[in-house]
Amino acid sequence: MSSEMKRKKGIMLFIVGVDSGKEKIAYSLNVKEAGRGTATSPQRRKRGYTLGAIRGLFTEKVEIHNRGGRNMAVWVKDDTVNARNEPLDCTNYAQAAFYGFQINLDEIEKRLKGENQIIREKQKTDCTESQTNFRRNLSKEKRTWR
Q1: Which helix (H) or strand (E) holds 65?
Q2: Rounded to an integer, what distance in angstroms lies between the CA atom of residue 9 and that of residue 67?
Q3: Are 87 and 53 in contact (CB under 8 A)?
Q4: pTM of this prediction?
Q5: How many CB atoms are closer than 10 A to CB 97?
Q6: What is the pLDDT of residues 62-75, one digit of tens each?
Q7: According to the model, what pLDDT value does residue 50 have?
Q8: In sequence order, what DSSP letters do the residues of 75-115 get, joined into one string?
Q9: Ramachandran bin of 70, using left for φ above 0, alpha for ψ from -120 to 50, beta for the remaining angles
Q10: Sign of dihedral through CA atoms 118, 104, 95, 39?
Q11: Residue 110 backbone dihedrals phi, psi, to 5 degrees
Q12: Where are the alpha helices (DSSP H) in 46-85?
């Protein structure tokens, strides 16, 4: 576990770099070619990716503010975008959780493919057994009809 993770009353707490997360999202939205680092979204409205949700990713922008004699990058609401910023915040926290738990998608994919193979083999076996039982019962019924 990382030093940033703490335990308090049985709950894991993480320090999330919100600004750096927003920078990563903004960068991925500006990548022009598909590939690693590109932001993608399903084309299905059922999954919540409506035009409003997509607009919500563009609700904030970076401005440089002088605080105490130092220039600092600050994320502020962009008044030119008429949308709520929850999609941006939710995407940011989802990415933090994804990377915080160090999820290995390649390993999950391999495991799922293996489980699917086991399920397919079991279905074949079940199907073969069902066909065999059906034939047995059919032949018994034919004997009784005669």
Answers
A1: strand 60-67
A2: 36
A3: yes
A4: 0.59
A5: 12
A6: 999 999 999 999 99
A7: 80
A8: EEE-TTS-S-SHHHHHHHHHHHHHHHTT--HHHHHHHHHHH
A9: beta
A10: negative
A11: -60, -45
A12: 51-56
